[in-house]
Amino acid sequence: MNLAVREVRTLAKKCGCTESRLADIEISVREAVANAIIHGNGRRRDQRILFRCYGDPERGILVTVRDNGCGFDPSSVPDPRGEDRLALDHGRGLFLMRELMDHVEYRRGGCEVLLFVACGCG
């Protein structure tokens, strides 16, 4: 996971992203990779994730994370701000990604997440 975070931070810096946006990107990438490992691949060491990162100073940063799981419906994940969810120590990843990124999209039946941030580039 740390390699993925380092790679995207390096690219985002080259695109001129601010420190604040770098932090947003790092949190979102960590959440996406953790979800792919834990939920998508069931923590199985024989399974890999596909991580791609693209950056352009004029357009921004695009990250995709794909797992080998059977997918999920993001709309079925409860809002972590619900009264019954506030004390839980998990379940905030999707919410954080949506709050911190400019665009979040789920593809391939929920096995792939696309994260986009303009980060003031260009």
List the helices and strands and how they pair.
Elements: H1 2-14, H2 19-40, E1 50-56, E2 60-66, H3 93-100, E3 103-107, E4 112-117
Antiparallel strand pairs: 1-2, 2-4, 3-4
Describe the structure.
- The protein is built from three helices and four strands; from the N terminus they run ααββαββ.
- It is an alpha+beta fold and 122 residues long.
- It has one domain: Histidine kinase-like ATPase, C-terminal domain (Heat Shock Protein 90, 2-Layer Sandwich), CATH 3.30.565.10.
- Helix 2 packs antiparallel against helix 3 (93-100).
Annotation keywords:
globular; alpha+beta; 20% strand; Heat Shock Protein 90; four-stranded antiparallel beta sheet; 35% helix; 4 strands; 122 residues
Task: Specify the helix fraction band.
Answer: 25-40%
According to CATH, the homologous superfamily is: Histidine kinase-like ATPase, C-terminal domain
Strand-pairing-aware structural class = alpha+beta
Q: Low-confidence spans: pLDDT under 50, at least 5 residues?
A: none
Write down the secondary-structure element order: HHEEHEE
Total strands: 4
Main-sheet strand order equals 1-2-4-3
Strand content: 15-25%
Give me the Rg, rounded: 14 Å
3D shape: globular
**CATH C-level class:** Alpha Beta
Profile the largest sheet: 4 strands, antiparallel
Question: What distance separates the N and C termini?
Answer: 28 Å
Looking at the structure, the CATH topology is Heat Shock Protein 90
Q: Name the average pLDDT.
A: 90
- Domain unit count: 1
Number of helices: 3
CATH arch. level architecture: 2-Layer Sandwich
